[in-house]
Amino acid sequence: MPKFQGVDYFRMDGLLSGEEIMVRDTVREFVDDRIIPVIERHNRAGTFPMELIPTMAQLGLLGATLPPEYGCAGMNNVAYGLVMQELERGDSGIRSFASVQSALVMYPIFSFGSESQKRAWLPLLASGEKIGCFGLTEPDFGSNPGGMLTRARETVDGYLLNGAKMWITNGTIADVAVIWAKLEGVIRGFLVERGTPGFTAPEMKGKHSLRASVTSELILQDVHVPKENILPGGDGLRLPLSCLSQARYGIAWGANGAAMACYDAALQYAKTRIQFGKPIAAFQLTQEKLVFMVSEITKGQLLCLQLGRMKDAGTVRFAQISLAKRNNVQQALEIARLARTILGANGILDEYPVMRHAANLESVLTYEGTHEMHTLIVGEDLTGLPAFV
């Protein structure tokens, strides 16, 4: 297939700074040269391409928006969003790795950690020398994280943690886990390091989606955490939810990348696939599908750009992030399904990226807040009336 040129029907590049375009193009080249050649092999095997981590770190993609004083790139939020877009054009699992490392591990350490915790962990996480995970979701509490059963009990020299977490990206390969637990009924964050007695992270197998991503359980049985490993910068459910807002922002951009990959594959295929004596791109029904795809991609791009500008200005609200995540993932999944119909039977082959993206997006529709929960978040914001229970 021809080299990917991007999808920019409304010339959005004219709204980007030179630095933002440079970041986007650098990551686009990385995806083309390093991710796309290997991702189908890893998807088949159900393995994560660990060999990509050092280069991702060298490019400044881990904790990209955090300050340079901690070894990070200090990008603005639009540049970071473009990074997420391009990584997910490669694969949702690759974007998930970078998103968790950045938004769910480095962000809470930066925002709620002590200065010594920041100095100890952020440079190592930014360089890829250490990997982190985020432990909030539990087997019985997904959309209702406030009901968590994981408990922390204060001891003479620290805290004792007991509980279990589920659907944890990077869990098995992580060197540190940001664990959320109730301490005297109040949610607090703890840094639990790999190798701590009683802490295990078995990998979950048998996935039909996000196969090139490590998904784990976290089991905590009388895990002793020293006092200096509690995050001192606040308590309550608002802390982990603020982390989720960071991750959801990246997902909104990332979904555009998956949609662009599917659209591009369908467009190139339709122009070369001959049926009834002409390319199938010449048929009205095929053109209607392609027009729908580029229309929704363009809407998603403009939505994310404004969201990023508001985020940089400090004016964004979490419900706006929910709307973007909800819309862009839903539309990306529909685009993937339509692209598969254009490719016909060939659409199920991993010679093309479409079926892999479609399967991945089924998970993205659910994680970091389900499509339904984001509907209710926006609904409450519009009406002032909560409809969660």
Structure at a glance:
The chain is an alpha+beta fold and 389 residues long. It contains 10 helices and 9 strands.
- CATH homologous superfamily identity of the largest domain: Butyryl-CoA Dehydrogenase, subunit A, domain 3
Biggest β-sheet description: 7 strands, mixed
The low-confidence parts are: none
Secondary-structure element string: HHHHHEEEEEEEHEEHHHH
Domain count: 3
CATH topology of the largest domain: Butyryl-CoA Dehydrogenase, subunit A, domain 3
Query: How many beta-strand runs?
Result: 9
Distance between the terminal alpha carbons, to the nearest Å?
A: 49 Å
CATH class of the largest domain: Mainly Alpha
Share in β-strands: 5-15%
Global shape:
globular
Residue-averaged pLDDT: 97
- Classify the helix fraction into a percent range: 40-55%
Q: Helix/strand-derived class?
A: alpha+beta
Gyration radius, to the nearest Å?
Answer: 21 Å
**Assigned CATH architecture of the largest domain:** Up-down Bundle
Number of helices: 10
